[in-house]
Amino acid sequence: MAMRSADQIKRIVIQCSLPAALEAMGERWSFMILRATFNGLSHFEQFQTTLGIARNILANRLGRLVEHGILERRDCPEDRRKVEYRLTPKGEALLPTLIALRQWGEKWEAGVPNNPVLVDARDGKPVADVIVRAEDGRPLGLHDLRWVDRADLERAEARCIYTGEPIGAK
């Protein structure tokens, strides 16, 4: 990414949605609960037994994930005394994030197991690495990216529609 002034960086940092996303997810246990949910677990006892997490921490993290709309809490149809936690569309949208973090860990963290392998259910082949792509599908690296203010982007898009020139044309 291009070098920016301290003021530009400050504005980007203040307006960036990453802190809010991190606040919603919390820390390690939230990601572990989410992974378990993606793998079909839905009951408090299942999470507690499978993850080996303390009950008070689990209750706190589940509450936080529900509060942020990542999971929903509902009565279990088979046993009304139990509740289950299910992914919301907002929670399902975290799948690429979880896969990217796992792939990063497999590549860069020493001694991290790379088993089991995540495969495409249709053909049984391993899923491709999660990467950042341009709108036209090109893979993008760090030096291909830059931050722009949303209002500036919208003005550029409007100018593009009006003039027919691509965004970024001088």
Key terms:
globular, mainly alpha, Arc Repressor Mutant, subunit A, 170 residues, 2 domains, 8 helices, single chain
Summarize the structure in words.
This is HTH-type transcriptional activator HxlR. InterPro entries: HTH_HxlR, WH-like_DNA-bd_sf, WH_DNA-bd_sf. Residues 16-113 form the HTH hxlR-type domain. Pfam families: HxlR. The protein is mainly alpha-helical. The protein folds into two domains: 6-93, Winged helix-like DNA-binding domain superfamily/Winged helix DNA-binding domain (Arc Repressor Mutant, subunit A); 131-170, no CATH class. Helix content is 48%, strand content 6%. The chain is built from eight helices and two strands, in the order H-H-H-H-H-E-E-H-H-H. A hairpin with a 7-residue loop joins strand 1 (71-75) and strand 2 (83-87). It is globular. The mean pLDDT is 87.
Q: Which ranges are low-confidence, i.e. pLDDT below 50, for 5 or more consecutive residues?
A: none
Order of helices and strands: HHHHHEEHHH
The fraction of residues assigned to DSSP E strands is 5-15%
Main-sheet strand order equals 1-2
Q: What number of structural domains do the residues give?
A: 2
The CATH class label of the largest domain is Mainly Alpha
State the end-to-end CA separation. Answer: 20 Å
Describe the sheet with the most strands: 2 strands, antiparallel
CATH architecture of the largest domain: Orthogonal Bundle
What's the multimeric state?
Answer: single chain
Shape: globular
CATH topology of the largest domain: Arc Repressor Mutant, subunit A
**What's the total helix number?**
8
Give helix % range.
Answer: 40-55%
* Average pLDDT number: 87
The number of strands is 2
Name the CATH superfamily assignment of the largest domain: Winged helix-like DNA-binding domain superfamily/Winged helix DNA-binding domain
The SS-based structural class is: mainly alpha
Alpha-carbon Rg, integer: 21 Å
GO molecular function: DNA binding
Protein name: HTH-type transcriptional activator HxlR
Domain HTH hxlR-type: 16-113
Keywords: DNA-binding, Transcription, Transcription regulation
